[in-house]
Amino acid sequence: MRITRVLSSTLPTLRLSLGLSLALAAGLTLGPAVSPAAADSTPSASPSGGGSAPTEAGTSFRTATEVDQGQTATASGSAGDYLYWSFPADSGQRPTVKATVKLPQAHTAQTWQVDVYDGLRRRQACQYGAQTRTAAADAASVELTCVLRTVRAWSEPWANDPLPGTYYVRLTVLDLKPSDLGLPVSTELRVDSKDIGGAAAVDGSLSQPLVPGIAVKSEAEKDDSSASAVLSSIEPDDGWASGWWSDRWVWTAIGAMLAALAGIGGYTLTRGSGRPRQVPPGA
Question: Residue by residue, what is the 3-state secondary structure of 155-179?
Fold first, then answer.
């Protein structure tokens, strides 16, 4: 009788606590799951000079063409040239670089390679993807892919971790016969990123992104000796390393609420079991 009374008095409270915890967990989990999907529909950075995709490539790090994530840049060149592009990548992103080289109708076997460098011009290893590929003789095109490691907000000075800032892409041919030197080729480059979220969050951040200065002045500034070099004009829409927010906060809030509800349930059970036993009249 005593156990039955205790359970009957505490079951409604436990059911209410469990219902609230499940509703809260579902709401907080679905909320952040919908937001990134909507945010991914628009590019995370804005290119300089308008929204049109670039149609040329640079020939060195200093002249690398700025490319926005989500755009498909094109360029024409000759076999044997070094082609350079640059793009921004912020903390929590895992960039994927895809390059396509369209070859002329007649050519011998060629080996092409795409390399990615960070703002300090350190070569970044590809996590996976066909970074180097050989096009067979008379092949119409060759496709290259490089998936970088997740960009970290902070790293040790001795480490080679990818950090927020500008990244450079270099596309070139490694193995070329003299007969193919100078043959016309056309290229396409596209950079996309996957938002890893709180799984890549670290306790620290750079004071400034690794964005190099560009020693180029406008026509009005050429005669002004006091004008300084400007930084790269391409960056994420919401600013560099914007974000103290990550889905870790969501799971922390869920854990705190579940712990509080569990405490309330435990207190209710303890309070119910401590009530004095009621003796029926006439016993």
Answer: CCCCCCCCCCEEEEEEEEEEECCHH
Give me the sign of the Cα torsion angle 5, 8, 12, 18.
positive
DSSP secondary structure letter of residue 140: S
CB 56 within 8 A of CB 73: no
C-alpha separations of 267 from 10, 14, 18, 270, 272 in Å: 10, 11, 14, 5, 9
Distance set, CA 262 to CA 72, 254, 270, 272 (Å):
52, 12, 12, 15
φ/ψ of 58, rounded to 5, equals -80, 170
**DSSP letter at 31?**
H
Q: Which long-range contacts (CB under 8 A, 24 or more apart) does 273-282 make?
A: 273/6, 275/6, 277/2
* C-alpha–C-alpha distance, residues 138 and 127, integer Å: 30
Cα–Cα distances in Å, from 144 out to 49, 167, 187, 201, 227? 28, 17, 11, 29, 41
Residue position matching structure tokens 């606590």: 17
pLDDT string in tens for the chain (283-residue length): 443 444 344 444 444 444 544 444 444 444 443 333 333 333 333 333 445 889 999 999 989 999 999 999 999 999 999 999 999 998 889 999 999 999 998 899 999 999 999 988 999 999 999 999 999 998 999 999 999 999 988 888 788 899 999 999 999 999 889 999 999 999 999 999 998 876 666 766 777 788 876 444 444 444 554 444 445 667 776 667 655 666 677 778 898 999 999 999 888 888 766 666 666 676 5
* Residue 59 DSSP class: S
CB 53 within 8 A of CB 110: no
What Rg, from alpha-carbon coordinates, does the chain have? 29
